[in-house]
């Protein structure tokens, strides 16, 4: 899954003109701009995950095993991990508005190259290009939303922006899968490329620009250097990043190959694949809603329940492949439970980290998330070729159990760290 975490460039802030009157009227909430940004997120995540729905068709067309098509997700995610930080630093002086437009155009080129690819290796190269764009995209989007609104409205603005990622699983991937089944997988990528260009035009027209980031070097170059004491919350943050990586590895070892599992394991009709992915995405949206309404203030409880229910539902899905009604209920329940996990893990990390290391902790979280996506697709490919697809859910459940144990350990570490900081304050 692609990562909808907020990534902020560590290069300073947007200059803001000082207010001359404390009672001035707040500007209207930038709904149009934020919805445009959310649409760009929708297209980015759809581009990242579309091969999971078109895996059988791409496999037959390119003459490679389905595990090789699944590795396209790994190539994409590992490219994000390796290139996002250096590319973000290299482009930190470029206007943010123009960067988003350029990234969407690169996405369009990547998808066109995928559509016309004569060989598997050509598709890999096209996906690597898309991964570079994806990493830069996420280095800009989170901060961009925050700079469009006053500080009190940042949470609301970011929520609207990242909702596009959830909608990509609800509509983008299922619709792309349905189109690929009807008209061929290559046309799905062509249509997505066209939508990327439309998105670039919408960003140019409706997204308000913001000033580029300043380096802040002048202000800090001659500042006295003092040795900061070791932050007591670092171990808990590291554990949460490990939990995130383990959970994402397990999830994408299975979800990357969900199309062949549903077709061959459950023996569903190919025409039902897109509706099932749609149902999974809707269930994930319900899980996201539960986070916002119930578990947001209780991230530890929600995380434990999400991991436990995910493990239970995947176990039922693997055990009742011959009983379709039970398997379908388990599939939807899995979608809802997993929909809770990414936002809860990020919230848990922010609760655990002290304010001094929160930005750094967010960067490590994002790296763990994307490394888990790529590592999971790679692990799934190895398992399919060695022990078979039917064993992959069992490995996933085992990793969820490990993550669940580590959540409990992290809670204990966080409580002790907070007690030590309170005692030294």
UniProtKB/TrEMBL annotation:
It is found in: Cell membrane. The chain crosses the membrane at residues 29-49, 69-91, 98-118, 124-145, 157-177, 183-204, 232-252, 272-294, 301-320, 326-344, 364-384, 396-414. This is MFS transporter. It comes from Cryobacterium flavum. It holds the Pfam family MFS_1. It is a multi-pass membrane protein. InterPro entries: MFS (IPR011701), MFS_dom (IPR020846), MFS_Efflux_Transporters (IPR050189), MFS_trans_sf (IPR036259). The keyword DNA repair does not apply. Residues 33-415 form the Major facilitator superfamily (MFS) profile domain.
